[in-house]
Amino acid sequence: MPHAQPRSVLTLGEDLPARYAAVRGLSQALAAPLSDADATIQSMEDASPAKWHLAHTTWFWETFLLRDHAEGYALYDENWPFVFNSYYETEGERIARFSRGMLSRPTLSDIVEWRSHVDAAMDGLLGREELAPLIELGLSHEQQHQELLLTDIKHALFQNPLGVKMWDVSAAKAHSSPNDWHSHPGGIARIGHQTDGFAFDNEGPAHRVLLEPFALSSRLVTNGEWDEFIADGGYDTATLWLSDGWGWVRKNAIRAPLYWRDDEQFTHAGWQARDPDAPVTHISYFEADAFASWAGHRLPTEFEWEAIARGQEGELPAHDPQGGNQLDDATPPLPRGGAELFGDCWQFTRSGYLPYPRFRPVEGAVGEYNGKFMSGQFVLKGASCATARGHSRASYRNFFYPHQRWQFTGVRLAKDI
Amino acid sequence: MPHAQPRSVLTLGEDLPARYAAVRGLSQALAAPLSDADATIQSMEDASPAKWHLAHTTWFWETFLLRDHAEGYALYDENWPFVFNSYYETEGERIARFSRGMLSRPTLSDIVEWRSHVDAAMDGLLGREELAPLIELGLSHEQQHQELLLTDIKHALFQNPLGVKMWDVSAAKAHSSPNDWHSHPGGIARIGHQTDGFAFDNEGPAHRVLLEPFALSSRLVTNGEWDEFIADGGYDTATLWLSDGWGWVRKNAIRAPLYWRDDEQFTHAGWQARDPDAPVTHISYFEADAFASWAGHRLPTEFEWEAIARGQEGELPAHDPQGGNQLDDATPPLPRGGAELFGDCWQFTRSGYLPYPRFRPVEGAVGEYNGKFMSGQFVLKGASCATARGHSRASYRNFFYPHQRWQFTGVRLAKDI
Amino acid sequence: MPHAQPRSVLTLGEDLPARYAAVRGLSQALAAPLSDADATIQSMEDASPAKWHLAHTTWFWETFLLRDHAEGYALYDENWPFVFNSYYETEGERIARFSRGMLSRPTLSDIVEWRSHVDAAMDGLLGREELAPLIELGLSHEQQHQELLLTDIKHALFQNPLGVKMWDVSAAKAHSSPNDWHSHPGGIARIGHQTDGFAFDNEGPAHRVLLEPFALSSRLVTNGEWDEFIADGGYDTATLWLSDGWGWVRKNAIRAPLYWRDDEQFTHAGWQARDPDAPVTHISYFEADAFASWAGHRLPTEFEWEAIARGQEGELPAHDPQGGNQLDDATPPLPRGGAELFGDCWQFTRSGYLPYPRFRPVEGAVGEYNGKFMSGQFVLKGASCATARGHSRASYRNFFYPHQRWQFTGVRLAKDI
Amino acid sequence: MPHAQPRSVLTLGEDLPARYAAVRGLSQALAAPLSDADATIQSMEDASPAKWHLAHTTWFWETFLLRDHAEGYALYDENWPFVFNSYYETEGERIARFSRGMLSRPTLSDIVEWRSHVDAAMDGLLGREELAPLIELGLSHEQQHQELLLTDIKHALFQNPLGVKMWDVSAAKAHSSPNDWHSHPGGIARIGHQTDGFAFDNEGPAHRVLLEPFALSSRLVTNGEWDEFIADGGYDTATLWLSDGWGWVRKNAIRAPLYWRDDEQFTHAGWQARDPDAPVTHISYFEADAFASWAGHRLPTEFEWEAIARGQEGELPAHDPQGGNQLDDATPPLPRGGAELFGDCWQFTRSGYLPYPRFRPVEGAVGEYNGKFMSGQFVLKGASCATARGHSRASYRNFFYPHQRWQFTGVRLAKDI
């Protein structure tokens, strides 16, 4: 998951205090159903404890805003940076990633107190115009960790054989929509971040890409379609798979998407009946690619996806990025639609996560940096039901390794025309 | 760690209710300084969460006493046996050992409530004479888990780089006592459990063993002596080590006992100055054996140790097994003496953990069973500062793999004479 | 390493017999200095025994030409396909890759006999025009395995602490050439295979790509420059490295290119003094990328490299692909130049190995297939000193994982202008 | 496998030259059917290449006899000790064990030449009385490696899916003999090496052991009986197994002894029909112990086995240790009997491989030493069809880890009476 670089001086001063309060409040609201123990456990190296997300985002404010810009500010606890720094090498030593699950102390309420302390101290900085880009970055950073908090805790609760849950709500039935194809005539498309708004460094520089004619599916692949893939021997047919994917399937005895069990799937609201019309989620790139082969189509490139998302004229399409099921309050994230580009699940592209032309990471720790993850991963476009509302933009580049599937990942097919 | 088999009908009926209350109460008192999160984390596959120990011991009472002998008793939660059974194959499927650290639910207070519920139900069974052996077994079982709870939580808290603790008390200074040798003329010694009292199945049958003349050190090896071993290149000298031990040292870059850091060691009361006169603890069999080679001596056999512990006439020796620092209330376990056979730390013997002549495991789940661990491990004798008072007897056989060292393990030397 | 698909009916009939004889002969000439035992050992899963390469290439002719097109041809040994098939899933079960080093039987001379038998049988097919594309493919396939044979046996002999060699020749001193930059104004470049000549399926379809202005270094990075990188702490500076690369460096204690030792490097002619003016080889993508960061530049994309290789007008550049040090007879491969695009070493690009627009793998086993390796790998351009002469073309796409370095891999820098 | 220490000055001077020639000759005769490549491959870390055994035994003569005692002797190749030393730490650095399979050079004939050179030089030493014990040790050492050469090459050839063999002979049909029990009344038995003859250091000192009454089966468990164990679900019944054994069975999907396939087993003569009346071989301690539990009996201790082998009066029993099928010339080792204590297969005891009372390893490299393997292994008694004739004695202690099974290991049951 990327970290942000401000692209321009944003004139967002006026509503920053309100937005700061909203974002910080949402983080805590998401963790509200969790006990201290829930918030402490770590289910795998890829994931972090909920408590750690609440602390790490706070560390960000304390380190890059308060320590550097609030005169006389003293660290709340000088030992905490060691445990709540994530991967900023220039910010010094840090705890091994797989030891995060050993942090029973500080407690969840210690962290919540720290949050209040930092929020109070931040009050004095929210009006300083020169800090607005950095604050903007802090907000985006915290919103990213909100999504990770949700996907990580889902994975942790899933380990519990007692079938626990953190919310009671269950999903509405999805509407089945017929598949259709958005055609694109090809030609030169303008790609990457192009406005004065906020974006991560890896979304730029904006540049032109030459496209061949293609079409993108109007909706996501559904659970029901995935059932057909399974019934047709999808997981047993070597020739459908990338070589590494086939190795992964065999070694891990993969037979279905993550979180599937009989006709149920595990959600933040516990085990629920699986809706055949809802978009399939929690699949790996390997599975997405094999499914596309099986279906006789392919995955789109990140450029094709973005071109459709922008519309023929470079405008955003009819799809309303605000209209999805994205995270806007503390309710369980559940994909329900499938027709929207944003808001159900992240969509794998066949594009490697690599630098755009003339990309240069910014100097210093804040700019450390999306660039260093640019090997071995694939770009995902869109936004999921666990993505903060307001994080949807055509230029956004999410990225994961081809075997990872604990995020809300799904498939939108493409084809040559 | 062994599980128990009643050897005879014990006439302990009178004080069983009081002893039941004391043992059950001590388990909870030990866990009292722990938060739900502290009690949830699992630091390695060898260890279990504190919460799990509290639950597993309760599962034992519910399964083997209440379910089988209390008419009409209904399981508190029918899903819990799956997660709180440990290794009783005949009691059905159970959670993978390394997943115990994912049990944020049930919470610590859920478990405490379960304990109360079970204790109340047990009231009706404590007076039934025919159940006394099984109850005796349950008490010993729970006392063993008290020791494991303490060594496991110590290991878990040790992982936290913030240096946390669960108690505030620190150790009194140890008295340095000069080394002396208890000689034994050799001959036929009677080994194994020989009284009407309680014992685990692996302590019997009693039998005779032929000994050569030998001497056993009057005290344990100290931290200060271990410092000399290190200073003399003990960890760098291949010829001092067993072949597997040398491989272990090299692969894991072992340079000192577990929990050592500069001149400190980690304890339940956090990082403390290391007392050179206190017995060394938390060493592996490999280290114990290498130290003995370096010192020009050897480790005793379990038979030699037991012969000395029984005295020349088969009596218990001057060493008072009740006089050590053993666990009798909820205070931090810290070895302080060194002259006692019981109460400071478990003492490695060079005897493999193997069956005594005519040993047969008992039938059924309760008897599952010390016998199945009889490969690859070594016998330890004595008792540690974390052992329940009353668990000290000459015939007790503790056992661990030669690389393990998270228990309170130490060294008492022997030599041929 | 790719497998080939004929793109068009080639009119190569006339000289096919001569070329067949030359290619087949070269394979055996390369293996001539090897004993049966040399040809049997396998040093890692990535590599194969020399004997296996000689057999696998023969299997290809027997399976796809003789079995399918030579009437009445009977397999030389019906059990051999199981052991000498490589990864063609549609051709049935095959031996686990890491067990190839257990094939002490058949012997090297058994394989050589089989080769003669197959060559004799092939005589009857070399004149059949409709088979020319398939024969062309077989030749390219065998030439690729010639390069692998050389890099694999180098790795195997390197394991021997006695410092063995397979040839006696040592390298001529390289000529130091000053660095210069080939500029490119950007714009639309035509990429991919564009002629009637042979190409692998992954080199097409030809298509257009939009480039930004850039410059490509006129020569390869040298051993001497790499020494400076090391002296400047290159392997100790986290911020120079991709995140995965830094993990790889730390885990494997990487301090220098593969095959370096003091001021020597291991070659097919044994340990030799390292020439500071010769191109650095046997480095991973991670190292190439870190070096480029340290040098203040970057790696080129595969498209930039190809655009320069084709020249401004789509022509081949002054660099003569035939003029390098490439493999043309059985002499030890040693990079010596550095100014040529082809013939010293493969050059890492920052382009992921991914399908070109409208790429579709061909049906059937022969087309199994470059496509299935399209995840997690990077494209390399050029050709090395171990590449068969005649395999140099601007569209060629070699590919390896970012940690692999037993091929003759090197670095040519690029920069934005 | 142990290394030897001479116990006394042997008066074997007269026939030493003849015995030296016979032993050295047998080593080469055993390797005669092997190609250089056969002799080079290494199938697992536990095993060594045949070539390595031929070289390592020669290294022993050159190092401990010629270098130390033949004036003016110069090492044949001063780099070879590094690669042909096995585990003698005091003799300096040595090649990693798992890299032995990379030694395609020196070739098999290089080694054979070295052997001749050393044999010629040894001529001058064979008559020196003071060297007799060391020469005796060298002979025993070489004989042990003859057995390992045979079991290691069997394992290596087994990896080849083409079903190769090194000899053509197949086994005679075994005679089915009824099971009977040798009873022993218990009491004090004298254990360990007690004569002037040669023995390894771990066979002493001789000492007394107290035994309970027991009985030992008159014959080995057969393939047919093992078939019944399998048919009765032996490999699926957790309660029959040691805990570590059950983990090993599950992790490795063990379903039968090593080398079994349908109703065949792999031998030095390739795949052969399995004789139900022949002793079962190639089973692990875990399997032996589970089988004994299933049969309602147990494994003997090493002391029980030895007491029976010595007979009631301390004499050797009717079983003729020279009468078995042991290795005496270069024929394929195949167990055929089952009634003999020596000569069919090694018999697992339930005794840990631990030091006898007053055991002290001898000083120096030659005495490096059986003692350092005294953790985690079990003692095996008897001798197998691959053991050199003359290596059979009641005090011999072979030892392996409980999961290992590439030796000719079998089961002789015991019971309490």
From TrEMBL, chains A, B, C, D:
Q: What is this protein called?
A: Ergothioneine biosynthesis protein EgtB
Instruction: Identify the species of origin.
Output: Qipengyuania citrea
- Source organism, top-level taxon: Bacteria
List where the protein spans the membrane: none
Instruction: Tell me the ranges covered by the Sulfatase-modifying factor enzyme-like domain, including all copies.
Output: 183-315
For this protein, the record's InterPro entries field holds: CTDL_fold, DinB-like, EgtB, Sulfatase_Mod_Factor_Kinase, SUMF_dom, SUMF_sf
Q: Hey, which pathway is this one from?
A: Amino-acid biosynthesis; ergothioneine biosynthesis
- Region feature Disordered, mapped onto this chain: 315-334
Assigned keywords, A-Z: Iron, Oxidoreductase
- Which Pfam family, giving just one, matches this sequence? DinB_2
Q: Where is the DinB-like domain?
A: 21-128
